[in-house]
Design a protein that fits this description.
The protein is an alpha/beta fold. The chain has 14 helices and 15 strands. Strand 10 and strand 11 form a beta hairpin. 42% of the residues are buried.
């Protein structure tokens, strides 16, 4: 678990080290006779219910944690979503909201409070959270922060399949409306590989081997799933960007099946659903640029970013850039209507958030408060912050 000598990270507490060692022992048992795919490794270190970063609740959000998401930066992010919710209701969509991976619960809290103030509370606010530990944290926080009438609108499920039916009411959990997925796609397990960008025949899968207490990359022939995933977009690759030297890269080979399952469930709702996916990423040519020699994989530990996924297993976040071009194409193939993709800044500035920002600034009680409001807004929309690095993809599902 010792970081490589070219960078340093804070030392985990003894209890965290014990937890990480337990996960290492589990991973070693999985790879005792063979290597692991990086997707399987990433699934375990992030989502194992006892030792995984998200699964066990190890993750800490906000300024004192490992990273800060848009809802923690400013309530104006959620205000933009409430604006979209009002537009959805005016268009006659379903009356529920579904959030995938609610994290700290901040977005759900802000949404329910703001929709209450605007007189547009959803019938149900459903949270799909696969981590038992995070579900408990979200429930405790929201129960303490919300009045009983608003908390009663909340429903938690642990899978897409569970959206079909609420065991307590014998009714579907989600009848259509608005789906929010903020920084969900970037944390889905990916396959790691090396290739000459655009040339499928050059691909080698990068698998995970355990050398004592240390994990290392090993090359292997590409799996059928990897070849199929690369072939899906390689024929659309700009021919003038073909590279000579091999580079590392990542791809989510499970994304087509995940989108297909999501579309199937949402299409059975009684109302139309608008889906908003927020994340950092870009088109294929940007994600797989030849000068990205080590791919887009990034790890975060106590607000320090690096690119070694084998440091402190279970104690750090692991993410990769989202290929929005491929995601939109796969979504269309799964039956979604693709309404478009744009920067987070363009999206926010196209809602009533600028007017709300002005009102908040005018109502600020002092300079310190106005400075906090202004800083939060800047972080959401400035190109050097989240404004251009983060994108939003909007999809739509009509009832079957």
């Amino acid at each position: 678990m010792t970081p490589p000598p070219d960078f340093s990270l804070p030392t985990p507490s003894p209890s965290d080290q014990d937890k990480s060692w337990a996960l290492i022992a589990y991973l070693r048992s999985l790879s005792s006779s063979a290597t692991l795919s990086f997707a399987d490794y990433m699934q375990a270190v992030l989502y194992h219910p006892q030792w995984g970063y998200y699964g066990s609740g190890q993750v800490q959000f906000g300024a004192g944690g490992d990273f800060v998401t848009a809802p923690e930066r400013s309530p104006l992010f959620t205000a933009g979503l409430v604006f979209e919710w009002q537009q959805a209701q005016a268009a006659g969509l379903g009356g529920d909201v579904l959030e995938l991976g609610a994290g700290s619960g901040q977005l759900a809290l802000d949404f329910l409070q703001a929709s209450h103030q605007r007189g547009c509370i959803p019938n149900r606010y459903c949270i799909l959270e696969i981590s038992p530990a995070l579900r408990r944290r979200q429930q405790e926080r929201l129960r303490a922060a919300l009045p009983d009438a608003l908390f009663a609108r909340l429903i938690w499920v642990d899978s897409i399949e569970a959206l079909r039916l609420n065991a307590q009411t014998d009714q579907p959990c989600f009848s259509g409306g608005l789906l929010i997925a903020n920084e969900v796609l970037d944390a889905m397990p990916v396959t790691r590989f090396r290739w000459r960008p655009g040339q499928v025949s050059s691909a080698e899968e990068q698998r995970v081997s355990c050398d004592g207490a240390r994990f290392t990359w090993v090359s292997a022939p590409p799996s059928v799933e990897l070849v199929q995933a690369l072939a899906d977009f390689a024929d659309k690759w700009p021919k003038d960007t073909l590279a000579e030297a091999p580079v590392a890269a990542e791809i989510n080979t499970a994304l087509p099946a995940w989108l297909a399952e999501l579309q199937q469930v949402l299409s059975q709702a009684t109302g139309t659903t608008w889906l908003y996916f927020f994340d950092y990423g870009g088109a294929s040519a940007e994600v797989y640029r030849p000068d990205r020699t080590d791919g887009t994989l990034r790890c975060h530990y106590r607000h320090l970013a690096h690119d070694d996924p084998f440091v402190y297993p279970g104690l750090q976040d692991i993410t990769t850039w989202v290929n929005f071009e491929r995601t939109a194409r796969l979504a269309a193939a799964a039956g979604f209507f693709v309404d478009g993709e744009r920067s987070q800044a363009a999206w926010l500035l196209g809602t009533d958030v600028p007017e709300q920002f002005t009102r908040l600034m005018q109502a600020a009680p002092d300079r310190a408060a106005s400075a906090r409001i202004a800083q939060g807004f800047k972080e959401l929309v400035m190109p050097t912050e989240m404004g251009e690095r983060f994108r939003v993809l909007r999809l739509r599902v009509e009832p079957a």
